[in-house]
Amino acid sequence: MAKKRQSVSFAAYVAMIPMALTVLLAYLGTMLWTARVSVSSSRTFPASDFVGASQYIRLFNNERWLLSLQNVAVYGVLFIAACLIIGFLLAVFIDQKVMAEGALRTIFLYPYAMSFVATGLIWQWILNPELGIQEVLHKLGFAGATFDWIVDQDMAIYTIVIATVWQASGLVMALMLSGLRGVDEELWKAARIDGIPRWRVYVSIVLPMLGPSVSTAFVLLFVMVVKVFDAVVAMTQGGPGTASEVPAKFIMDYLFGRANIGLASAASIVLLATVLAIVAPLYYVRNRRAAKGA
User: Fold this and answer.
1) Considering only the top CATH level, what class is 44-293?
2) pLDDT digits 0-9 by tens, 166-181
3) Alpha helices in 204-260 (DSSP H)
């Protein structure tokens, strides 16, 4: 029996070898290579010299990069907040045992199954001043109505928020709903007996219980914020001008359009460090809580 267990365990380790190699070579290997290129003078082709932090200094002296950081900060705060709030409200709505619950779950979650390119194109048409909402309002008789955010430098980034919130809220809804379905029914009975308003139960009791779901949703949304690219390119191409420029588009432009892989690699490492700075503490806290619970 012991030999059989050892053979099964050995087979499991053998089956994990391809994934381990993928992680080591495709992920860690490329990250280390990118870090090495970021401290070289590489432009069109990788160079083997060492220039220290000069690429990072050039990066943070680049106005376009600083604008992209500003844009992604505004986008990230609004996107994550809106997705968490809307997703939670949708989950609460569906948790009321509404009719056609399965159909509603599918409808709310369906946008997440679409690519960000498709989402961007759909919302580009909807927000186009000559084809979308503004034109519809004009045909309804509201001749002075304007909704031209997508071509307004001050408002373009908010159109990206609208489109991506529409797409990602369903994912948050699904995560929150799974957490709500784990809440003990006795809690609701006790709250009704004590006369506690339902909204107060959600805010004071249920939301703290949904901590794991909220943190998971936050991490997934944060990763979406860092790598937002497809929706921006499909909707605005980073414009008007550079009004909706984001770090991922900056990296792709300098990597392929301007043939400056040293600067693009430095920007990539900055984004990687940002993700690790946010995700690593959350992962550590969750593991500590799990260990204390065990």
Assistant:
1) mainly alpha
2) 999 999 999 998 888 8
3) 207-209, 211-226, 230-235, 247-252
